[in-house]
Structure formats: structure tokens, C-alpha cells
């Protein structure tokens, strides 16, 4: 061990194992100040050297001596030193051949001071360990040897010689390497080798080139990518050994549960021992691919992330569910899960039902999580803001289960104003095919006072039906919000169409009447009663003022805020821009002789729409306001039967009190899991509706008739029929699965139906594990020999991500 001349110089070493000669010198450390050098070595020539730099700081330095001694400085190596600091190595001989050039650029170097002997001509043999461009041949016994043939360009190792590169062991058996071509080694699994904590599988192919060797190898990937292998090419050189710079792992196609991926490519970063890269992800079961970032460390997935909102967004994750933009993060605690943020739309890219979960992970007010657990079905959970036709419901949670096409939600509702509105919590499930839904709710309805009661939420709107017990009577009213028109209010939970009773000059004996001038007269009654009236405008909402004559009470719309409801002690005005009208709700507490309500417009108002004209006392022709009153109708009753068989059925019904009341019907199918599908609707009192049984679990299903009033609010739900439904239609098992190898390619073909796509898992003898997705009934794999062992498994996948039975073939 010595340094060259100069204040700063290289630290060099030379080693003699048998005292028959020293190895050519090699550099351990470059450009250092080395004083008080101390050396410790073992029998394999490896060890440590320690020194200081002779400064006041007192720092001590150390470096290791590799097993077999330092790599020679030059190619070919310099001759052994004859004199180092006046010391003459004993029995030093320049006749030892320590390296042999097999062909230009490929050199075999004997390690630990060993020498090659030539016999016969062109064949050089040594019992020492040999390094060929970084590939090592390590003998464990005196009986082992390594020979190189400079004429045939081969390397031959006897049994017991470990042939390796870094931690990769190719063989321990006798064999010959082809330096001009590629040498292939099979069944690497038997050595239990790991590289970066990834297991080496199948075969490795080694090819020598100028100054280096290339190693093609398949490595198993960590969960959840462990169903496939990643192929990579490693480089090794005599001086640096196996290089860990620029290593890439690539997989063309794979799928994990409901996720489909392609073109996984990661690169090793030696600075932090991490593989990082990307993969293209497609959420199930259709849509475009988007690139996301991945990372592996110590054989485990440590990073999987994507934040993206450009093309190809929006795309469908299921027919009727669209992702408009997204941001992902990874959670691998149980199976495979993605979390982050997303913007969801149902049933089209623009809604009308949207869910904004961009932002923080679930539990912090926003975000989503898509999980494929180890032992269950995939599920998408969201937290954020749910919107219907642009109206936000706060603190919402939603979930999507692609296995049974179920999209459910729950949210907090706070619609309207303190004295007029709907408040509480709602929950429901969406028919993805139609974008419709209907669910009951527990809500608080407010018309002057707030009372909890039964409620409904649907794709039309949300409403609460409440009753107030006043001891002498029960006051019933409805308040709601239609997504496309705004707040609405009614006098009972079954308010029919707004129709105008015959006009008169005063109150009738038992009904509300409208005077020719628009005055509203309420009849005599003995208890508290509510009424609802529509006041239409000409070309928009009129700004009206209503005066309660008996109570001398007035309520008027605010010209500065014309769409904001206004209220007094006994009256509420609800403007509706969608219908260009104002809804007047009155709580009449004048039991003696009835009451009168005068309706006028403010100076800046549009005119009230007219309904004809009349001649005044002075002979003038005067327009009569088109004010209408909510008229009551009996409850609608519905009966129905179901005919047909299999998946094609027909529901036939009869209903009462539909036409005059302005009501309509909606028929809803509910399966054994409680998932609802809207079959269709009608406003006819009798009729039939053909429908196809929705895909779902087998068993008894019920059909309910939902009665919807003229304001579009469901007011009753009645079970009307049941029938036995078949279960899910899963993809058929692949039939006639055949494997053939032609011109170095494997062709797997099969017959099958009812599949949106086919998942194909292929295990090859060379260690490749491929997971392909195909919409055709065949796949082709390159680089497969006629004698190679192959196992292929094919399974069909439907549009909901459900799998059929697998089919397997071997050769």
C-alpha cells in the first residue's frame, strides 16, 4: 500500500496471495493526503486501509479493499511493481500472465495474484477467480478452474465455479459461455436472488461487448404489480462491477382489479435507492388512459400519484359516471387503493348531478378513495360537495360500486331562508343509466315556522311535508326546491294542479274564489287553514304586494332582490323565475265571515298576466288578472301487474285521479340488494310499459308506483307488483383455448361471448409474467421458442368490471 509522489496523490495497492508475485497496482482513493497508513487484510485479499491527513483537525479516513484485490488501473494491466519505497517483493516474476484478451474489448483478468497457463495453444486456464468485463467466475475449491479460448471466443467453467455479476448468480454448474453471442441461463428462482429487493425470475441472457457486459433479466415487481414481471437490461464492467445507474424496468400491459394499466416504465435512482417513473392508468371499465407517477423502494410500492385535468378528461369510469378531473395518491395498507381528489358527473360529462371532491383526502372535507381490497369488490368513496343542476348540497359523501353499478350519496341540505326552506340530511341511490333517483328523507320544512317531517329527494327536486298540531286542528303544508326552477311551497302534501275556480265577486261557501279585479276571497271556516295561489307575470316575475284586509297585514317582494322570498306573520311570497310567477302561501286565521287579500303590483313591476277581461261600472273594458288557486283532489291509487319472462318484462297499470290533478306516475324497480332502477313514467291513467330487467342479483324484485304532483314533487310511493328476476349476466368462460408457437411467437386464441374485454395472464419459461387486456379473442407474445413451457389463463370481463370463469391452457 503506497501513495505516489506529491502532497496530494493516489493511494495504490498491490497484493500477493502466494508470494509468487504481486498483482498489478490498482487505485483505492484518488487525490488524497495520506499519512500514518494502516492496513488490515483477510485471506481473500479484501480488507480496510485507514489514514489521516496530518492536519490539526484530527480527521481519520478509511476505504475498503475489494475481495481479490483492487482492479488494475489499465487495460491491459501494468506489470507488477519491482520496487516500492526500496522494498523488493519476494519471488516477483514478470512471466505471470494475469490477463488474457479473449477478443478486442473482452478481457479475462485473474484475481488475487493468480496467473493463466496456456495449454494447448489459445486456451488459457487458471485456478484463480476470473473477472471478464465485470462478470465474475469464483471457484470454491482447488479442483475448480476457468478456461478461456481466444480462438473460439469462449469461456468454460468447471462444476462448482459460481458465475455471477454483483448479487446475480447465473449458474454453479459446468458450462461454456459464448463471447460472440448471448449466453442464456434458466431457472434463476432456485438461487433466491434479489436485486433491489426484487426477485430474479426465469432466465437471464448475458452478452459481451467492448469493455462491458449486458445482462437481460426479468424481475418480479412488488404488490400490487406482482402479477407481472418487469424486464430490464443491466450493465457490468471490470472496474466498476454491476452498474446501478440508469436501470429501467418496463411492463407493456397489466391490470389490477378493476384498474387497467399500460407502459409501466421506472428508472433506478442510485442517490436514494428508489425506482421512479410512470404508468398509464385507465379507470374501469372504459375511457382514455392518463399518465401517473410511481415509485418503488426496498421492493415495495411507495409512491403512486397523479394530478391532472386536461385531455382526455372528462372520461367515463362507468356508463353514467364521468370523471372531469382528478388527483391521486396511494394507500397500500389493504390491497390496492387510490386516494386524492376528483370531480364526478352523473349521467353525462356536464351533469346534471355532479360531485366536487377535489382537495383534501376523505375525512377532511373533500377527496376520494378508490380501493381494490384483498378480499372484496372495488369501491369508490368521495367526500365533498354534491350538486344537482348546479345547486350545491354541502358535507356530502358518495360511493360507487362498479361490481353492481351502484352510485349512492348522502348530504346535508340547507336550502332557502330561515322562515322558508328545507333543511336536514338526505340520502339516495342513482340509476346511472337514466340519471334518475328517488329516496325518502328526514327533513325540516319551514313556512313561517320550522317543523321536522317526512321528505323526499329525487332528480326533480327536494321537498318536506310537515304537519303542525294546533290542538283544534292539524295544519299540513309542503315546502321544496326544484333543481331547475327554485323554491316552491304548497298548502298540503298532495297539492294538485293550479286551476282557477269560477270567478266571482266574493267568497264562496266552501272554496277560495278570485274576484274579477284579482282580489282573493277565502271562505268561512272554523279552524286554521292554509291556501296556495299562483300569481303569473307577463314575461317575467311580477313584483307584487298582497294585503290581508282582515288582519291589516301586508307582504311585498323587494325590488332590489326580486328573486328572494318575503314573508309576514301569516303570508309568504315565493318568486319563481322558471315559471315567471309568484307563489303566495296564506295561513288564514279569520274564522268569522272569511277574508279578502288584495293583490297589486309595485311601480317598477311587470304586469300580472291576464285571463280575459270584464266591463267595469263606468263602462271601461278592464283586464282580469290570471291568478290561480291550488285545487285539492283525492289521493291517487295505483294497481299493476307484471308480465313477460326472463329479462324482458311488461308492467300494466290502472290509476285514479291523474288527469285533472296534473299528477303523473313513475315506476321504480328495486332488487334484493335495495338498488333502485327507474323503469319509466306516464301521466296516463291506464297503460303498459315494456322494460328490460336491470342487471343485478337474482331473486325477488318489487315495483313501486311513485305519484308525482303537478309541481314535480313525489307525494306517495306504493308497492304494486313483484316478480322473480335472473341474476347478473357474467361473461362466458373462454372456450377452445389454443396455444401455438410460430416463427418465434406465441399465439393464444379462444372462443367466447358476453365480454367487453378479456384479461390474459401468461407465464413463460424465461421468467416473463405478462398480464394483457384484449378486446379480440387472441393475443400474440414475441420471443417464445417451440420448446418453451407456457401457461395461459383467460377470463372475460364485462362493462361493470365483473369477471367470468377462467380458462387455462399449458404447453
| First-residue to last-residue Cα separation | 59 Å
Strand elements, count? 69
Number of helices: 0
Q: The biggest beta sheet, please?
A: 19 strands, antiparallel
Radius of gyration: 42 Å
Task: State the share of residues found in helices, binned by percent.
Answer: under 10%
Q: Please state the average pLDDT score.
A: 76
**What fraction strand?**
over 45%
Total discrete domains? 6
- Low-pLDDT parts are 308-312, 359-366, 495-509
Polypeptide structure, described:
The protein has 811 residues and is an all-beta fold. The chain has six domains: 1-93, no CATH class; 97-179, no CATH class; 309-467 and 481-489, no CATH class; 497-632, Sandwich (Immunoglobulin-like), CATH 2.60.40; 638-725, Immunoglobulin-like (Sandwich); 735-810, Immunoglobulins (Immunoglobulin-like, Sandwich). Helices cover 0% and strands 57% of the residues. It is built from no helices and 69 strands. The chain has a 19-stranded antiparallel β-sheet that branches. A six-stranded antiparallel β-sheet has the order 7-8-11-12-15-16, with no helix packed on it. Strand 19 and strand 20 (198-209) form a beta hairpin. Mean pLDDT is 76; it is low at 308-312, 359-366 and 495-509.
